[in-house]
Amino acid sequence: MHILITGLVIFFGVHSISIINVSWRDHVVTRIGLLTWQGIYSLISVIGLTLIIYGYTLAQQAAVILYLPPAWLYWVAILLLVFIFPLLLATYMPGRIQTITRHPMLAATKLWAFAHLLVNGNLADVVLFGAFLFWAVVERISLKRRRPDLVPMLPSSRANDAIIIVVGLLLYVVFIVWLHEWITGISLIR
Length: 190
Hints:
Elements: H1 2-15, H2 17-32, H3 34-61, H4 73-81, H5 84-90, H6 96-101, H7 104-119, H8 123-143, H9 160-184
Helix pairs in contact: 1-3, 1-8, 2-3, 3-8, 4-7, 5-7, 5-9, 7-8
């Protein structure tokens, strides 16, 4: 479990710099350059993510069950996850979905984490998905008092929302049918 927690601290530590001290981050970016900052940020993120994956795998081998969710929550989680890929796409495609949700990637992260907490009751699951949910909530709150980072986006178009929904739902189906099992070893087809 300590490897999982170390990975979470590293991953969310670097992802929380703007929450904690945006002026420090801006100062460092000015000093070392944006590309160098992005390289260091990415490297630290990959190290954290690698430790999260490895630590989670180890923690699952000695699972500590905190709760057993009822079977019907599986369908609630599957329904909540329908929105994940459209929200992720909306992060990079201006349109009504982006305007309404304001921070679609954070909304996707919160939904993803919450849906997984509904159906996974092991200690490692609660630590992993709870950390993602907690971070996304804190990040969303912090964005109310600071300027959000600029995100590269595709050009604005009236078709963006339709593209987001169609492509997002296609990605969802591909993920549910094939990719989730390939990535995690857990089939979602029941």
